[in-house]
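Structure ticket #2291
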Amino acid sequence: MVKYRLWGIRVGLYATIAGVLALAAIILWVLALSWRPTDRFAFQGLDVSAANGEIDWFAVKRGGADFAYVRATAADQRDPRFEANWAAVAETGMRRGASHAYSLCRLAADQANAFNTIVARDDGALPTALELDFSDDCTARPTAPIVLDELRRFITMVESHTGKPLLIKVSKRFDAAYGVTLTIPRPVWAMQDFFPPDYPARRWRMWQASDMRRIDGVDGPVHWDVVAP
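Resolution: structure written out below.
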């Protein structure tokens, strides 16, 4: 009888501990969804694509965004919501920049021509952002010299069109594979949830601090970004 009683107490204790841990996990998850870096980072904003759906940009601005990057092209294709997002961000008075999601499965010249055709030169816009990461729809993995030469070609063409140096948004795994931040001297936009990234070869200028933040005006998680102080 004593053995069964002790067993019951132990089961009850384990259940209580499990409940406490589950509650703690829920609390941490809720906090993660609303987390943003401290006010030491004076300029904070987000980057979006058609995957984020229709956005209420005035609500986004009220939520604390100072700027927005809007995807214009991916590979050699137009982002379906670029024009709508581009115009709507301007209406709010927020700073705006255009981005391109690079593909290892398309020639750099074709991608640059697509971007330059779709995004008109705007001297008041933020520098163009070049997004570099691996994607499920492209399994090509060219050698580093080929990739770096192609990236330089894209950069030259787009910078000639926009009139300003672009910003390289590169994931840790892409940078490890191709050494982009070591070999291409452009401002770096690094990505790592919650903790400042340390993988780029040079100091980052922007940081994607969360890919799960929830804010009013957007249905679902967004990429939340900050500018280095």
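Closing remark: The radius of gyration is 22 Å.
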